[in-house]
Amino acid sequence: MSKKKSKAKNEDFKKQKLKPGxxxxxxxxxxxxxxxxxxxxxxxxxxxASPVTTVRGLTLEDLCKQLGHYSQNVRRxxxxxxxxxxxxxxELLNKYLRFIxxxxxxxxxxxxxxxxxxxxxxxxxxxxxxVDEIIMESHFPxxxxxxxxxxxxxxxxxxxxxxxxxxxxxxxxxxxxLKNVDLFDVFLxxxxxxxxxxxxxxxxxxWKYFLxxxxxxxxxxxxxxxxxVISFSERTSxxxxxxxxxxMDFSILGPSAQVQESPLDSEARLVNxxxxxxxxxxxxISEEENPDxxxxxxxxxxxxxxxxxxxxxxxxxxxxxxxxxxxAFEPLTGLSKLPTNKKLLKCLKHLDF
Length: 353
Prior knowledge:
By secondary structure, the chain is mainly α. The chain has helices at about 1-10, 40-45, 60-65, 70-90, 90-95, 95-105, 115-130, 135, 140-150, 155-170, 175-180, 180-190, 200-215, 265-285, 295-315, 320-330, 330-335, 340-350. The chain is rod-shaped and about 150 Å long.
C-alpha cells in the first residue's frame, strides 16, 4: 500500500518526456483558436449594382448639388453631366425628378449665365419636359415659379430665355398651365409693357401657345379663319356641366375637387387679353416691312381669340361685353381697311361688326 500511495503522489510532479521538435503546452494558458467553415451563398457571387456615374465619376445627386456652385464653369459642366446621364439612362429622370426640377429651375433666372450655358440649360429642359404630365404635376408649381420670376427680371436676356422656356412648358403641359391664373396675369403684364422681347417671331410663338394652353380647343392645325360668326344679339342657355378632376385633388384637402376653368372664361380677363393682344398685333403688322411674313400667324392668333370670345358668348350675358370687345379690336379693324390687308378684314368680319 505504501508503494502505491507514493507512486500516485509522484504522478503530479512527474516530468513529461518530450520528443525532439515538440513544444510543451502551458497549463495556465487557454487555447482561443477557433475552427470556422466557410458558407458560400449564390447571392454573394453576384456583382452589387453601383450607381450610374458620368465620365468624371459623379452621380446624379452630385451633379444636382453642383448646379448651385458659384462658378459658372462648374454649373455648365453639371448641366452637361445631367443631360448625359438622363439621355443615356431614361429611368433616372423619373426616379430623381424631385432633385432635378428644383436644382435646374433655379438657373432659369440666373443672370450670370452666358449664351452657352443657357443653350445647355434649354437642351436639358427639353429632355425634362418629356416627362408625362401626370408625373410632372406635383413638380410643376416650383418650375413655374422660377419661370415667372425670370419673366419679371430686369435684364432682357433673362426675360427672353424665360419666355423660350415658357413656350416649351406651355407646349408640353397645356393642361397644367390652364389651372394657373398667375401665369395668365404675368404673361399679359409682360406683353403689355415695354419690357417684352423685341423678337417678333418669338412673341407670336409665345401668344400661339399661350392661347392654346388657355383654350379648351387647343391649337388649330390650319391658318383658316373662323367659320362661325359671333352674334352679340343672341343668348343661349347652354351650360357646361362637365367637371375635370386633377390627380392632385383629394377630398381630405378640401370640401370637393376643384373645377378646371380657364381664365378666358372670366369676362375681365378675356377683355384684358383682347386689350393687350389686339394693339400689339396691329403694331407688329404695321411695323413690318413685308406684312405677308407675319400676317398668317397674326390671323391664326385672332382666330383663336375669336373662338374664345365665341365660347364666352354662348354662356354669358353680353350687355357690357360687346362694347368692350369692339373697342379692343379697334386697332385691328382700322388696319384691316388698308387694301393690302384683305385677309385680315375677312377674318375680322366674323366678329359681326
